[in-house]
Amino acid sequence: xxxxxxxxxxxxxxxxxxxxxxxxxxxxxxxxxxxxxxxxxxxxxxxxxxxxxxxxxxxxxxxxxxxxxxxxxxxxxxxxxxxxxxxxxxxxxxxxxxxxxxxxxxxxxxxxxxxxxxxxxxxxxxxxxxxxxxxxxxxxxxxxxxxxxxxxxxxxxxxxxxxxxxxxxxxxxxxxxxxxxxxxxxxxxxxxxxxxxxxxxxxxxxxxxxxxxxxxxxxxxxxxxxxxxxxxxxxxxxxxxxxxxxxxxxxxxxxxxxxxxxxxxxxxxxxxxxxxxxxxxxxxxxxxxxxxxxxxxxxxxxxxxxxxxxxxxxxxxxxxxxxxxxxxxxxxxxxxxxxxxxxxxxxxxxxxxxxxxxxxxxxxxxxxxxxxx
Length: 373
Description:
Elements: E1 4-13, E2 17-20, H1 21-25, H2 32-39, E3 43-46, H3 53-68, E4 77-81, H4 92-100, E5 106-110, H5 116-129, E6 135-143, H6 153-156, E7 161-171, E8 176-184, E9 192-193, H7 205-209, E10 216-217, H8 219-240, E11 250-253, H9 258-267, H10 279-282, H11 289-299, E12 308-315, E13 319-326, H12 338-372
Parallel strand pairs: 4-5, 4-6, 11-12
Antiparallel strand pairs: 1-7, 2-3, 6-7, 8-13, 9-10, 12-13
């Protein structure tokens, strides 16, 4: 029997700075009432100057490793879903791999917009079921505040920063990831994009002056796409798992807009209690939204062992993805012990020292080679 991919660890990180609707009203022509009625968002988190996508991803990953009780060296693969990587290259996943000390892990970034994390789950589950990997760390992390035009009230009210992580482990037990579906329609790529910064329109005085490095969105078109594709993807992934809507205990959707979430729930004939939402607290955190919501749903007691969940998202590309899974992980009953916390702290400090030494050795070797020439 081929192994099944089971969730064994989860963790999230959100920045400390809270930006409320009233704060935004001091920056652009808007109001708390205008934002709340149209989006359901009340506040969002904004990364500090010394934070980045990788630093938030690392913190979420560390929490997930602690829940799973794994040594970072036991991780075989790291996937970071993000639209806001630290660099074009190296990948953010490689930065995470180094910081964690996950010395046996391959690492790559995945770009599928807000669908990225759910895309990553399907990729990871497929690799586990094929027997290629045993433990895969999937992270959704975004620093959208760095590509948001804070003078554009149509978009600046929507987005926030944060990271969420999940560990999938392969074993022969029943449950885990039951099915996954992925989709894309590139003809809608211009509906949600950052016009410049890539090789087609590299950075220049002109692109900066014209604000082409900020994200742009055609809201009405994206809304219509979302309320159609979220229910459709949910039905398809359930059909693939031979399940029905009645079998679902909880849906964790992409947290883009409360009106989209509510419309999708009505289309699926689901009561609000079966659809988790935290968009009011964090806004749209793109690829981070589903894992952050999943972590909070677990922490708040919405998820129980044996429950059937659907994680579903849509995003730039245009892309969409859904995963059906049966929650098989036992939920922690006790807080992390002091001994365990110290042990992990030592591991991460060792990883930092190891990285510094390896970098130093490379520099010395380069200098020695140069001297010999």
